[in-house]
Amino acid sequence: MGGNASGEIRVYCDCAGEAKHPIVKVLRGWFMNRDANIALSDKNRMRMVEDEKNIDLRVLTRAFGVEKNADGTIAAVKALDLRGNRVVRFVSPLFCDATGDGWVGYCAGADWRMGREERKSWNTYDHVGRFWIPYRSIYSRNVGNLFVVGRCFSCSHVGLGAPRVISTLSQLGVAAGEAAA
Ligand SMILES: Cc1cc2nc3c(=O)[nH]c(=O)nc-3n(C[C@H](O)[C@H](O)[C@H](O)COP(=O)(O)OP(=O)(O)OC[C@H]3O[C@@H](n4cnc5c(N)ncnc54)[C@H](O)[C@@H]3O)c2cc1C
Question: Is 95 helix (H, G, I), strand (E, B) or coil?
Fold first, then answer.
């Protein structure tokens, strides 16, 4: 619906790995951004999401703040509806930050890190082969009801090298959804 994988930016998505969830398989089919019919793909993606009864899609709505509960969890996310020029509040028991830069987590005071670290910080070394993304890297350690997925999930600079692609990051959203359910 937006971001790097949108038809507007046209970052190409393909990989040999298996999509673990049907929605990722379907979306992947419409992320082939080299297609000349890119506008049609955008429409198809939009239609698919709008048809999903468990999704209430709000485009052009920018999160800018949160309200917190006494225990430090998030009570509501505040956002600006740019078309209606009004502030909207999203209230939920669980929240998921997929803003790429972690804005909701930042507003909520979630612990974060950014930038490169020394090799010795995490004992990283060159390794080729399969890798796993642990569940603990997609939720905040100090904001109890916050998932953080996509390219702002928790990892080191070196650790981000392999998973920072569209198909893999899509799976993090699926994992958070399954965990929330
Ligand atoms: C130049 C370039 C080339 C790349 N090439 C490839 C490639 O060939 N293949 C590949 O698989 N990957 C590629 N990548 C990486 C891949 O595109 C990204 O890692 C991936 O798309 C990140 O997805 P995301 O959903 O986590 O974040 P994003 O795509 O950044 O999406 C974040 C979304 O959140 C929205 N947002 C931000 N702030 C707010 C807010 N406050 N309130 C509401 N919404 C907000 C943004 O508008 C955006 O829609 C490339 C990246 C770049 C930059």
Answer: strand
List of residues 6+ apart from 125 with CB closer than 8 A: 119
Convert the pLDDT of each residue in 136-163 to its tens digit. Answer: 999 999 999 999 999 999 999 988 988 9
Which residues, 6+ apart, have CB-to-CB distance to 131 below 8 Å? Answer: 162, 163
Q: For the chain, what are the domain ranges?
A: 1-55, 95-180
Atom of ligand 1 at shortest range from CA of 2: 49
Contacts of 98 (CB under 8 A, 6+ apart): 148, 149, 150, 152, 173
HSE value, Cβ hemisphere, 13 Å, CA-based, for 115: 4
What does residue 139 show for φ and ψ, rounded to 5 degrees? -135, 155
The CA distance from 90 to 59, in Å, is: 14
How many residues can be counted in the chain?
Answer: 181
55-69: pLDDT as tens digits: 899 999 999 999 999
Alpha carbons 77 and 109: distance in angstroms, whole number: 13
Torsion over CA of 169, 156, 133 and 76, rounded to 10 degrees?
A: -60
* Probe residue for ligand 1, chosen from 81, 166, 170, 171 as the CB with the greatest number of ligand atoms within 8 Å: 166
Phi, psi of 59 (to 5 degrees): -85, 160
